[in-house]
Amino acid sequence: MQQFFTTLLAGLTLGAVYAAFALALCLIWRSTRVVNFAQAPMAMVTTYVALEVIDHTGSYWFGFAVALLAGLVLGAVVERGLVRFVEGKSDLNVVILTLGLFVVLHSLAAIVFGQDYKSFPAPFGLRGLHVAGHDIAITGFGIFTLIAVAVVFGLLVALFRFTDLGLKMRASAFSPEVARLLGVRVGKMLTLGWALAAVVGSLAGLLVAGGNLVFPQFMDSVVVYGFVAAVLGGLDSPAGSVVGGLVLGLALSFVSGYAASDLVPITALGILVLVLLVRPGGLFSHVAERRV
Question: Which residues are listed as membrane-spanning (predicted)?
Answer without folding.
Answer: 6-27, 34-54, 60-82, 94-114, 136-160, 189-209, 215-235, 242-260, 266-288
